[in-house]
Write a structure and sequence with these properties.
The chain is of the alpha/beta class. It has 2 domains: 269 residues, Queuine tRNA-ribosyltransferase-like (TIM Barrel), CATH 3.20.20; 86 residues, no CATH class. The strands form 4 sheets. Strands 4-14-13-12-11-10-6-5 form an 8-stranded parallel β-sheet. The chain has a 3-stranded antiparallel β-sheet with strand order 1-2-3. It has a 3-stranded antiparallel β-sheet with strand order 7-8-9. A hairpin with a 2-residue loop joins strand 2 and strand 3. Helix 10 runs parallel beside helix 14 and helix 11 runs antiparallel to helix 14. The protein is globular and about 60 Å long.
């Protein structure tokens, strides 16, 4: 297992797990939600504000940072931690999902993926080895295998061949990192394998079996939340988690709503990431204990109420809905700042409440109440 990376389970409540991940840049209490900082920034917030929110880990994007400003420059600047002045944990994805989403700008072969930059159309090539090398140059604590994410819907045979190539790529990623670790003491990243297989339980199980032989320190479930129903998504989670190692963190990639987090934890997931709280904040969609509100709507024009009377963030303690609506309609930068701060606070507070409920062996009670309130609010997932 990579140097300075470990995972321990502190308490279990059914399938839900309270745990701790230790990395070279600090500890993460799990279950955890990781804010997305695509280009080395969580949009609209400073690193000081993230620390104030007690964010322990943020996710950065290999594809975007490789294109701008370039992984070589970031390495010369002392790595991504130093470059963005973030002393806590960093996780980078492999760039696979971004390549998947550019179907008209890429060509996939066994060797890797040739793609064109969405910035200027220039041609680039990512092999599994190159993806790991870029992530090592970034210096993140947790890195991901390069994988192929299939679209939805996807025929079984296509999904099978894609899954098998993902497994072959995972082995190449693992071998490349292992070779670098023998000669470079700085190569202490923890590499997670990614389970693919579209919406087919047999392929998910097959993928897990093949990845387990490689002994990754953590495992992610990828290729979901790409158009399938919520029911099918969690069916695939249930078809996967029972076969993953008990003593390794489990990461559900790109998910999701607050209700999704609760449902994922119920099924044994430890780690989540999603752009939803930050992207929705910039669009004026704000999460509350009673569902969501859309701050631009006329109903908030004269409202002296905070976003959420049950929320403890400074935005809710100080600012009215009427003012926040005004900021949004004026297209003021402060609108994105305040909305994003609140939404992330809500997500992180939800995760803290989840951890506390597991610690006290009352997660089932918490989940039932939370999901009941969420559904009664009329909030649409």
């Amino acid at each position: 297992m990579p140097h300075k990376f470990s995972f321990e389970i502190l308490h279990m409540d059914g399938a839900s797990r309270l745990g701790r991940i230790t990395t070279p840049h600090g500890e993460i209490e799990t279950p955890v939600f990781m804010p997305v900082g695509t280009a080395g920034t969580v949009k609209a917030l400073t690193q000081e504000q993230l620390e104030e929110l007690d964010v322990r880990v943020i996710l950065a994007n290999t594809y975007h940072l490789y294109l701008r400003p370039g992984d070589d420059l970031i390495r010369q600047m002392g790595g991504l931690h130093q470059f963005i002045s973030w002393p806590r944990v960093l996780l980078t994805d492999s760039g696979g999902f971004q390549v998947f989403s550019m179907s008209d700008l890429r060509e996939i072969t066994e060797e890797g993926v040739r793609f064109r930059s969405h910035y200027d159309g220039s041609s680039h090539f990512f092999s599994p080895e190159r993806s790991v090398e870029v992530q090592m140059n970034l210096g993140s604590d947790i890195i991901m295998c390069f994988d192929e994410c299939t679209p939805f819907p996807c025929p079984h045979e296509h999904a099978k061949q894609s899954m098998l190539m993902t497994v072959r790529w995972a082995e190449r990623c693992r071998n490349y990192l292992a070779g670098r670790q023998q000669s470079d003491e700085r190569a202490n990243q923890a590499l997670f394998g990614i389970v693919q297989g579209s919406v087919y339980a047999d392929l998910r199980k097959d993928c897990v079996d093949r990845l387990l032989a490689m002994e990754f320190p953590g495992y992610a479930i990828g290729g979901l939340s790409v158009g399938e129903s919520k029911e099918k998504m969690f069916e695939m989670v249930e078809a996967t988690t029972p076969f993953l190692p008990w003593d390794r963190p489990r990461y559900l990639m790109g998910v999701g709503t607050p209700a999704d987090l609760v449902e994922g934890v119920r099924r044994g997931i430890d780690m989540f990431d999603c752009v939803l709280p930050t992207r929705n904040a910039r669009n004026g969609w704000l999460f509350t204990h009673d569902g969501h509100i859309v701050i631009k709507n006329e109903v908030h024009k004269e409202s002296e109420k905070p976003i959420d009377e049950r929320c403890g963030c400074f935005v809710c303690k100080r600012y009215s809905r009427a003012y926040l609506r005004h900021l949004y309609h004026q297209n003021e930068v402060l609108s994105a700042v305040l909305n994003t701060y609140h939404n992330l606070y809500f997500y992180l507070d939800t995760m803290e409440r989840i951890r506390q409920s597991i610690a006290s062996s009352r997660f089932a009670e918490f989940a039932t109440q939370f999901l009941s309130e969420w559904r009664q609010s009329g909030t649409s997932d």
